Amino acid sequence: MINYRGNKLSVENKYVLKIAKNNQTPFYLYSAKAIKDNFEQFCRVFKKINPLICFSVKSNSNPKILRILKGLGAGADVVSGGELLKVLNAGISPKKIVFSGVGKSTDELKMAIKRKILLINAESYSEIALINKLSKSSKRKTSIGLRLNPDIDAKTLGKISTGRAVDKFGLSRKKLIEVCKNLKEFKHIELNSLSVHIGSQILSDIPFKKTLKVIEEIIRKTKTHFKFIDLGGGFGISYSSKEKRIKLNNYSNLVNKFKKKYNCNIIFEPGRAIIGNTGILVSKIQYIKNSISKSFVIIDAGMNDFMRPALYGAYHSIVPLIKSKSQSMKNLEFVGPICETSCKFSSYKKYYKIKEEDYVAILDVGAYGSVLSSNYNTKPLPAEILIDKNHVKIIRKRQSLSEIIKN
What we know:
By secondary structure, the chain is α/β, with parallel strands linked by helices. It folds into 2 domains: 160 residues, Lyase, Ornithine Decarboxylase, Chain A, domain 1 (Beta Barrel), CATH 2.40.37; 243 residues, Alanine racemase (TIM Barrel), CATH 3.20.20. Helices cover 29% and strands 26% of the residues. The longest helix has 17 residues.
């Protein structure tokens, strides 16, 4: 869906350069078809299991995109009250919503309890006690899951690892077993799920296989039948030619056997795997500044628009909207305008011939792109544009400076 037609970058057969000349840069540009194709492919891989697929809203919370996913049958994995309200407004059923996160506030829990969502995934004994107290005040029972920290290193970036003992998420095996044995004291809690999420951008199925073994251990030791096993997300995509996209067929077979053995329903929470490669960030080259060892290509997109490289050291390819025949330029570093040394993107030893006022696209920014954008340096939030069935639609207007200043 996002490829070159001749030497021109296109999204769903629309030339990106034409869109760039009609909209102020930087802006996010998504392919609706790519989103649908990714979701349907994920469903096909896990078809035998028939899981509830709860899209990870923290990866991209644009309402239009949420409505597309709702139309495909997706549920939602939310981590804040704001995300919960967004998915409800998008029409996603409360019975397809799970609420995760280590620090849910009292107000957020009240909101989730009132809406009778499928699961609140509790991450501490104190949180369980608070859910019970709030549910008692509301004179109802609340469906919860317990989030397990399996102490498994998913071998991903340290800042997006969530399943090691040193990470803040979930209950240790010992603590979770203890909680299961003492849940009878909570009269307004209904334990329906065991939940686990070990990190993001995972490119091997080995950590997932290890996690299944730990879950089996928990089930044996607690003698608990869980209606749902929430296996989280974290499935990686290829950000460069060096990264191979995770192969999920073997994992699907293992989960299918697990499901039959324990007579449970499976929940997955993919985000990046659905949305990651469906979007680009289009930017204009402001200046090309030569230094002793390299040339800085200064674009109008900054770390305020796209945070991942500065926050995680994440790599994203940058391509020109019009590709020249040869890579004649050497030692380029793409950087942004923000007054921070960390406002930089990718470096290249060889690159296509480009000049000031040309346009480029940062690839694979559909996940953790727009949601992490900010007004740092008093910069406006970028627009988001969707190509859907040959139509180019603005799904979030570019913020104006007057909107920022009046606040």
